[in-house]
Amino acid sequence: MPLNTITTLGSCIGFMALVAWISYIKTRGQTDTRAGYFLAGRGLTGVFIAGSLLLTNLSAEQLIGLNGSAYAFNLSSMAWEVTAVFAMVIMATVLLPRYLRGGFTTLPEFLGGRFDHRVRRLSVVLFILGYGLVTIPSVLYSGSVAVLQLFDVAGLLGVDDASALLFTILLIGTVGGLYAVAGGLRAVAVSDTLNGVGLLAVGVLVPVLGLVKLGDGSLAAGLVKLTSEHTHKLNAIGAATDPTPFATLFTGMILANLFYWGTNQYVIQRTLGARSLAEGQKGVLLSGFFKMLIPFFMMVPGVIAYHLYGEDLGSMDRAYPRLVADVLPAALGGFFLAVLLGAVFSSFNSLLNSAATLVCVDVVGPFLKGGMSDARMIRMARTASVVIALMSFAIAPLLQFAPEGLWQVVRKFTGFYNVPIIAVVFAAFCMPRAAPAGVIAAVIFHLPVYAAVTFVWDTGLHFVHIYAVLFLIELGIIWGFSQVMPAVNARPLERPETAPVDMTPWRWTGPVCAILILAVAGVYWLFSPWGLAGS
Fold first, then answer.
1. Alpha-carbon 23 to chain mean position
2. Residues 63-106: pLDDT tens digits?
3. Tell me, what's the pLDDT at 479?
4. Distance from C-alpha of 187 to C-alpha of 214, rounded to nearest angstrom
């Protein structure tokens, strides 16, 4: 085995072992109860919440997918990340106080309290299918592609590329799942925070070294080339033919981000484990500042790759791994690999932990009249995690055949469950007479219609615009049922007299929200024809 490979593997294993050891020390003896396993004992502080949100959100899917989109097109897809700030503001100020006051463990539990057990279980089905068929496989596949670009796995094992991909998927999935299966949410949060620091360090280092390479050894010369040649690549104001047209920011993009940051179980679960409302708000808003950095270390490297390699890479998803392999020395390459795998593990084990939580709390638990002991529920959660992981292992390799690149295919398939979930939550908050039958009808309507207008019938609309159209239609269905169904089928939101945590808001919530919104406008101005794209 070459010395560089040994050095890279050694630094990778060393950093991963350090993270695992610290995570074990921090979680030892704290996962024996359901509250400890699923919600980290409701003791997470703002720093741990922000770190976990960052790593859960920023995985190899983003590193490879967003940089690939920038390499092949421009920065228009940064909308999925930067405009998420608006949803995070709504989460911190509107949704999180409601969730914490009710003491909910899952979103379906919240929906069951507002509607009935049928809506609760239907929402669980949407989440589990979405996680198992789309989100988890994409995390495994993107992480495996990055590893294969950094190492000649096929050569080391003496197998073909397809077998190497399958082996890498199984290895990453098996190792990553140990965090979730063994340590629960607190282990996820601790390891996420440690890996988050590493991700930020690498995220800054790769574009800096890439600019140095672009400038033939000079950072300043590389920056001049980046901002004076092929400047159309730095434009975030997407045209109708770009992956993310600018007009989508005002239609379905709002819904997609609000779903992800306000209702997606595997994201909001760490905020439900907050020690207090103030700590939860700090965590959500602090992660908003990290989102402002996404264009700089998850898209600009893709533009640098275009300057260096032109259109010779074959696949857009190879842009970032190729750049990393070229600019990072072997020792730092191992550190990058460790951080990358940490990001993959974070998303993977967060998804497994949340899926297991949904199965135990919302599917099995309500059927057991006598209740279930904490030990039995944790054993069941671990079994559910293994089953869901195995299902994802079988699907992940199929993503290599996606013609539009990883980023677009995942966004399209996510539309099967994000739109109906956000429509149901909106109805729960804003339509007091909304009845369970209307909710069920809206979900049943959505699935075949979305499949038809996205994958069969070319409507001429971007799929993000389709999000918005179907959202409005589904709200209309829910409203229509509310007009004819008996009022007894519509229940108001339950508001317990006492919350399980301190509900005093963070006093800086308002000013921080305002700063974040202004930052979004500033980033869009920078990457526009009035800024760098017009140079």
1. 21
2. 778 898 899 999 999 998 999 999 999 999 999 998 888 877 78
3. 93
4. 40
Lookup: tokens for 341: 């795998």
pLDDT at 418: 92
Sequence-distant (≥ 6) Cβ neighbours of residue 322 within 8 angstroms: 149, 305, 309, 313
Residue 35 identity (one-letter amino acid): A
Tokens found for residue 200: 């930020």
One DSSP character per residue, 477-513 reads HHHHHHHHS-GGG--PPP--SS-SSB-PPPTTHHHHH
Alpha-carbon distances of 351 from 121, 240, 267, 385, rounded to whole Å? 18, 33, 9, 9
* Residue owning tokens 């992981």: 389
Q: What is the full DSSP assignment across 2-41?
A: -HHHHHHHHHHHHHHHHHHHHHHHHHTT--SSHHHHHHGG
Q: How far is CA 95 from the centre of its chain?
A: 18
For residue 502, what are the β-bridge partners? 276
For 251-263, write each residue's pLDDT tens digit: 999 999 999 999 9
At residue 530, what are phi and psi to the nearest 5 degrees?
-85, -10
Q: What is the DSSP string of 93-121?
A: IIIHHHHHHHT-SSHHHHHHHHS-HHHHH
3-state secondary structure of 44: strand
Q: Tell me the pTM.
A: 0.82
Tokens of 280: 């939860």
Q: Helices marked H in 215-276 — which ranges? A: 219-228, 252-262, 265-272
Contact 280, 100 (CB under 8 A): yes
Q: Which pair of structure tokens corresponds to residue 513?
A: 């929200």
| Rounded distance between C-alpha atoms, residue 436 and residue 440, angstroms | 6
pLDDT tens digits, residue range 416-445?
Answer: 999 999 999 999 988 888 889 999 999 999
Q: Which two tokens stand for residue 308?
A: 């260096």
- Taking the C-alpha atoms of residue 532 and residue 293, their distance in angstroms, rounded to an integer, is 16
Rounded to the nearest 5 percent, the helix, strand and coil shares of the chain are 80, 0, 20
| Residue 344 CB burial class (10 angstroms; 0-12, 13-18, ≥19) | buried
Report the SS3 class of residue 264.
Answer: coil
